[in-house]
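Q: What would this chain look like folded?
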Amino acid sequence: MRDRKHEDNQGRGTSMQLLLILGIAVAIAAVAFALQNNMTVTVTLGLWSFDSSLAMVLLLAMAVGAAIALLVSWPGMIKRLWSSSQLRRKVNKLEADKAELEQRVTRLREELARVSPEPLPEEPPPHLDLKSLFLGNDGEKPKE
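A: My prediction, written as C-alpha coordinates:
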Protein backbone atom coordinates (compact mmCIF):
# COMPACT_ATOMS: atom_id res chain seq x y z
CA MET A 1 0.00 0.00 0.00
CA ARG A 2 2.83 2.35 0.82
CA ASP A 3 4.45 1.77 -2.60
CA ARG A 4 1.24 2.78 -4.38
CA LYS A 5 0.97 5.95 -2.28
CA HIS A 6 4.62 6.75 -3.02
CA GLU A 7 4.02 6.29 -6.77
CA ASP A 8 0.90 8.49 -6.61
CA ASN A 9 2.84 11.24 -4.83
CA GLN A 10 5.60 11.02 -7.45
CA GLY A 11 3.02 11.34 -10.23
CA ARG A 12 1.47 14.39 -8.58
CA GLY A 13 4.92 15.94 -8.09
CA THR A 14 5.76 15.46 -11.75
CA SER A 15 2.49 16.99 -12.93
CA MET A 16 2.95 19.92 -10.53
CA GLN A 17 6.45 20.50 -11.92
CA LEU A 18 5.09 20.47 -15.47
CA LEU A 19 2.36 22.95 -14.51
CA LEU A 20 4.96 25.20 -12.87
CA ILE A 21 7.13 25.13 -15.99
CA LEU A 22 4.08 25.87 -18.15
CA GLY A 23 3.12 28.78 -15.86
CA ILE A 24 6.63 30.23 -16.05
CA ALA A 25 6.58 29.93 -19.87
CA VAL A 26 3.20 31.74 -20.03
CA ALA A 27 4.50 34.48 -17.73
CA ILE A 28 7.59 35.00 -19.88
CA ALA A 29 5.42 35.16 -23.02
CA ALA A 30 3.09 37.68 -21.31
CA VAL A 31 6.01 39.92 -20.31
CA ALA A 32 7.42 39.77 -23.85
CA PHE A 33 3.98 40.62 -25.22
CA ALA A 34 3.61 43.54 -22.81
CA LEU A 35 6.99 44.98 -23.79
CA GLN A 36 6.17 44.80 -27.50
CA ASN A 37 2.57 46.14 -27.30
CA ASN A 38 2.69 49.32 -25.26
CA MET A 39 0.26 51.51 -27.24
CA THR A 40 -2.66 53.07 -25.38
CA VAL A 41 -6.24 51.81 -25.95
CA THR A 42 -9.60 52.89 -24.57
CA VAL A 43 -11.83 50.21 -23.09
CA THR A 44 -15.54 51.01 -22.82
CA LEU A 45 -18.06 48.88 -20.99
CA GLY A 46 -21.50 50.50 -20.76
CA LEU A 47 -21.05 53.88 -19.03
CA TRP A 48 -17.61 52.98 -17.75
CA SER A 49 -14.42 53.55 -19.80
CA PHE A 50 -10.72 53.80 -19.13
CA ASP A 51 -7.43 54.21 -21.03
CA SER A 52 -4.57 51.74 -20.59
CA SER A 53 -1.89 49.99 -22.60
CA LEU A 54 -2.99 47.15 -24.86
CA ALA A 55 -0.84 44.68 -22.93
CA MET A 56 -2.42 45.60 -19.59
CA VAL A 57 -5.92 45.25 -21.02
CA LEU A 58 -5.13 41.80 -22.46
CA LEU A 59 -3.38 40.65 -19.28
CA LEU A 60 -6.37 41.86 -17.23
CA ALA A 61 -8.71 39.96 -19.55
CA MET A 62 -6.54 36.85 -19.18
CA ALA A 63 -6.57 37.18 -15.37
CA VAL A 64 -10.37 37.57 -15.33
CA GLY A 65 -10.67 34.47 -17.55
CA ALA A 66 -8.39 32.48 -15.23
CA ALA A 67 -10.44 33.58 -12.20
CA ILE A 68 -13.68 32.52 -13.91
CA ALA A 69 -12.15 29.14 -14.86
CA LEU A 70 -11.05 28.64 -11.24
CA LEU A 71 -14.51 29.49 -9.91
CA VAL A 72 -16.19 27.15 -12.40
CA SER A 73 -13.85 24.24 -11.60
CA TRP A 74 -13.93 24.76 -7.81
CA PRO A 75 -17.07 22.63 -7.10
CA GLY A 76 -15.61 19.68 -9.01
CA MET A 77 -12.32 19.95 -7.13
CA ILE A 78 -14.12 20.06 -3.78
CA LYS A 79 -16.25 17.05 -4.75
CA ARG A 80 -13.15 15.06 -5.76
CA LEU A 81 -11.37 15.97 -2.52
CA TRP A 82 -14.41 14.95 -0.48
CA SER A 83 -14.85 11.61 -2.28
CA SER A 84 -11.11 10.97 -2.05
CA SER A 85 -11.26 11.56 1.69
CA GLN A 86 -14.22 9.18 2.03
CA LEU A 87 -12.48 6.50 -0.02
CA ARG A 88 -9.29 6.89 2.02
CA ARG A 89 -11.30 6.39 5.23
CA LYS A 90 -12.97 3.29 3.75
CA VAL A 91 -9.61 1.84 2.70
CA ASN A 92 -8.17 2.41 6.18
CA LYS A 93 -11.20 0.75 7.77
CA LEU A 94 -11.01 -2.22 5.38
CA GLU A 95 -7.28 -2.62 6.04
CA ALA A 96 -7.95 -2.63 9.79
CA ASP A 97 -10.74 -5.21 9.31
CA LYS A 98 -8.42 -7.34 7.17
CA ALA A 99 -5.68 -7.29 9.82
CA GLU A 100 -8.21 -8.22 12.50
CA LEU A 101 -9.55 -11.10 10.40
CA GLU A 102 -6.02 -12.35 9.66
CA GLN A 103 -5.30 -12.41 13.40
CA ARG A 104 -8.56 -14.28 13.99
CA VAL A 105 -7.70 -16.85 11.30
CA THR A 106 -4.29 -17.36 12.91
CA ARG A 107 -5.86 -17.83 16.35
CA LEU A 108 -8.44 -20.30 14.95
CA ARG A 109 -5.74 -22.31 13.16
CA GLU A 110 -3.71 -22.49 16.35
CA GLU A 111 -6.79 -23.61 18.27
CA LEU A 112 -7.64 -26.20 15.61
CA ALA A 113 -4.10 -27.56 15.72
CA ARG A 114 -4.31 -27.77 19.52
CA VAL A 115 -7.77 -29.41 19.61
CA SER A 116 -7.70 -31.79 16.65
CA PRO A 117 -5.84 -35.12 16.86
CA GLU A 118 -2.90 -35.86 14.65
CA PRO A 119 -4.02 -36.98 11.20
CA LEU A 120 -3.77 -40.72 10.54
CA PRO A 121 -1.26 -41.75 7.90
CA GLU A 122 -2.84 -42.85 4.66
CA GLU A 123 -2.86 -46.56 3.86
CA PRO A 124 -0.63 -47.53 0.99
CA PRO A 125 -2.47 -48.66 -2.15
CA PRO A 126 -2.99 -52.43 -2.46
CA HIS A 127 -0.33 -54.33 -4.35
CA LEU A 128 -1.49 -55.45 -7.76
CA ASP A 129 0.11 -58.43 -9.38
CA LEU A 130 0.67 -58.76 -13.09
CA LYS A 131 -2.35 -60.98 -13.63
CA SER A 132 -4.75 -58.41 -12.13
CA LEU A 133 -3.10 -55.63 -14.11
CA PHE A 134 -3.65 -57.48 -17.40
CA LEU A 135 -7.17 -58.59 -16.57
CA GLY A 136 -8.10 -55.17 -15.22
CA ASN A 137 -10.05 -56.31 -12.20
CA ASP A 138 -8.22 -54.74 -9.22
CA GLY A 139 -7.09 -57.97 -7.58
CA GLU A 140 -10.42 -59.85 -7.86
CA LYS A 141 -10.44 -63.40 -9.12
CA PRO A 142 -11.61 -63.75 -12.71
CA LYS A 143 -15.13 -65.00 -13.27
CA GLU A 144 -15.38 -68.40 -14.86
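Residues 132 and 139 are 5 Å apart (CA to CA).
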